[in-house]
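Entry 14. Structure prediction run on the chain below.
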Amino acid sequence: MDELQEEYFDWRQHNILTPVRDQKKCNCCWAIAAAGAIESLYNIVYKGQYNNILQAAPQHLIDCLNPNPRDIGPEECYTSTVRKAFKWILSNKGIAKEKDYQFNARRGNCKEFLERKSLIPIKGYEKVDIENLSSKIKEQPITCGIRITNELRRLRNIREFVM
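Output returned:
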C-alpha cells in the first residue's frame, strides 16, 4: 500500500488544471486534450503571474487545423490527434487564449491572429513511454489518446466487458 501512495499524484490538488470542457457532439477531444496539456504546463511554469489560471483555446485548433474531409462529422467537427494539434501549434507559432477564442464545440471559420504576442507558444512536445509515465506525471500533467478498436465499439455495456 505504501508503494501505491508513493506513485499517487493528483494535479487537481495544486490549482493548475482548468475546468473540464464538454465536447458535446463534436469529436474534438484531441483539441481539448492538446489545449489542456499546454495550459497546464504554462500554469505550472508561470504560476501566480496571471490573475486567473491561463486557458488555451481548443476552438482555435478545431477551426484552423485542416481536417481530412472524410473525418468531418455531422457537427462539422472531426477526429484528429493530439500530435497533429501540437505540430499545428508549432507551425502556427502558438495557440490562442480561451478569452480571445471562445469554445463552442462546432467547427467555424479560422480566425487569424495578427498579434502573435497574444498566442501561447510551445517549443516542442515529446512522446512518453509507459516506463517513464509515473515520473513524467509528477513533472506536469500529460495527455494521452486511446485508440478505439472495432472490438471496443461493439461493447454495448461496460459491465459486460468487466464481468
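Residues 25 and 75 are 7 Å apart (CA to CA).
Filed with the rest of this week's runs.
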